[in-house]
Design goal:
Elements lengths: L1 E14 L2 E7 L11 E5 L7 E4 L2 E3 L2 E7 L3 H8 L5 E8 L15 E6 L4 H9 L4 E5 L17 E4 L3 H6 L4 E6 L1 H10 L3 E6 L15 E3 L2 E3 L7 E3 L8
Parallel strand pairs: 8-9, 8-11, 9-10, 11-12
Antiparallel strand pairs: 1-2, 1-7, 2-6, 3-4, 3-7, 5-6, 12-15, 13-14
The protein binds flavin-adenine dinucleotide and FE2/S2 (inorganic) cluster (FES).
């Protein structure tokens, strides 16, 4: 884990209230899509977690949706603002090597859960993409998956059966991830963007029940193997 200052270089609106932010600075702590960052916001005690969308030598990007006062303030900051960011957090997706360029891989992003799928899509150019939203008019971000076969839907479950795949990587809310885990017969990995507390392993906030006991999304996750997760009724 690293902590340092980053410069907000760009705010690219994907739709009203949702932007792709580029932050420039040291990107050496990023290893895999699925990892997250915690952004310190002036005046707020708790840091705000966001999945890393993608990164390069000069910095990284996140997708931010205005969900409350902290994210609204973040989206309103002018370019050039310096932000303290904790980087390289969490474990990230590790699809099996046998997937090669990803022709048998399905990337499933629900809402802002599509963010790490964009980073995976760049690494797996033949992967298929499923983007699910509560309503089709809420859809955004398709442009991040240029060159891929992309299904945009408000019915998450039917395409899971219809799109052939051997493995999936999925990210989104707890209810959506539960539906994916229980309906998709393929093996896969699931990342949660659950409500977290401290973000560094001390409070058990947002823990998940697994075959190994309770696991912290911020430390043992946010990515879990489908088979290790246990779902409450
Ligand atoms: C691992 C992870 C990855 C995430 N990735 C993204 C992403 O890529 N894009 C995105 O827009 N959002 C993402 N979120 C959710 C994002 O962190 C919250 O929407 C944000 O913290 C809300 O802050 P706020 O001040 O606007 O809202 P408030 O409701 O005012 O926040 C109050 C407190 O609750 C926490 N909180 C509120 N809602 C959530 C939530 N849904 N998840 C986690 N913590 C929450 C905040 O961090 C803060 O501590 C992610 C969350 C986690 C845990
Ligand atoms: S958020 Fe506190 S332990 Fe994970």
């Amino acid at each position: 884990m690293n902590r340092g200052f980053y410069t907000l270089a760009e705010n690219l609106p994907l739709k009203p209230g949702i932007s792709l932010l580029r932050l420039e600075g040291d990107s050496s702590a990023f290893q895999r899509p699925g990892q997250f960052v915690q952004i310190e916001l002036p005046g707020y005690f708790l840091k705000r977690p966001f999945s890393v969308c993608d990164w390069d030598e000069g910095g990284f990007s996140v997708i931010v949706e205005a969900a409350g006062s902290g994210t609204r303030e973040l989206l309103a900051l002018p370019s050039g603002t310096a932000l303290l960011v904790h980087t390289g957090l969490g474990n990230g997706f590790t699809p099996p090597d046998s997937l090669g360029l990803g022709e048998d891989l399905l990337l499933i992003g629900v809402g802002t859960g599509l963010s790490p799928m964009a980073g995976l899509a760049r690494r797996y150019p033949e992967a298929k993409v499923l983007l699910a939203f509560r309503r089709l008019e809420d859809a955004f971000g398709q442009e991040l998956f240029a060159g891929h076969e992309v299904c945009v839907t408000e019915d998450l479950l039917s395409p899971l059966v219809a799109i052939p795949h051997r493995f999936f990587c999925a990210c989104g809310s707890e209810s959506a991830m539960r539906a994916v885990a229980l309906h998709d017969r393929a093996g896969g990995q699931i990342a949660f963007d659950v409500r977290m507390g401290c973000g560094f392993g001390a409070c058990m906030g947002g823990s998940k029940k697994t075959v190994h006991g309770y696991a912290r999304v911020c430390r043992e996750g946010p990515v879990f193997e489908k088979e290790e997760l246990l779902w409450e009724d």
